[in-house]
Amino acid sequence: VSVGGLFIETKTPLPTESVLSVRFNLDEGGPVVMAKGFVTYQVKGFGMGMRFVEISPEDRDRIAQFVSRNVALAEPRKASRQAG
Questions:
Q1: pLDDT, tens digit, for every residue of 11-60?
Q2: How far apart, in whole angstroms, are the C-alpha atoms of residue 46 and residue 28?
Q3: 61's torsion region: left (phi>0), alpha (psi -120 to 50) or beta?
Q4: Helices (runs of H) and strands (runs of E) counted in the chain
Q5: In the chain, which residue ranges form alpha helices assigned H by DSSP?
Q6: Separation CA 10–CA 45 (nearest Å)
Q7: pLDDT at residue number 29
Q8: Which of 46, 49, 51, 53 is the most buried (most CB within 10 A)?
Q9: Which phi and psi (to 5°) does residue 77 adopt?
Q10: How crowded is residue 33: how many other Cβ atoms within 10 Å of its Cβ?
């Protein structure tokens, strides 16, 4: 997930340009994010990328905070690998 879109794992991705609505949780027990968008690419047998075209500013902010927290958590692991 990113502020601009989402990758959805599925064995049967939709054709590019397909419009879809999604609902998902960022955190267990947290509020549901709702967005509308369209398929921008597909990886046959694995999934599809979706770009958001309608999403509330609050949900976009929540995604930005979620991504920022998770990148911050991953950085120390990356730094420790480079040191070794």
A1: 999 999 999 999 999 988 889 999 999 999 999 889 999 999 999 999 99
A2: 24
A3: alpha
A4: 1, 4
A5: 57-83
A6: 7
A7: 82
A8: 49
A9: -65, -40
A10: 21
Encoded amino acid at 1, one letter: V
Name the percent of the chain in helix, strand, coil, to the closest 5: 30, 40, 30
Measured CA angle at 63 (ends 27, 52), to 5 deg: 120
CB 23 within 8 A of CB 31: no
**Dmax over Cα atoms in the chain, in whole Å?**
46
Give the distance, in angstroms, between the CA of residue 53 and the centroid of all CA atoms in the same chain. 13
DSSP 3-state of 10:
coil
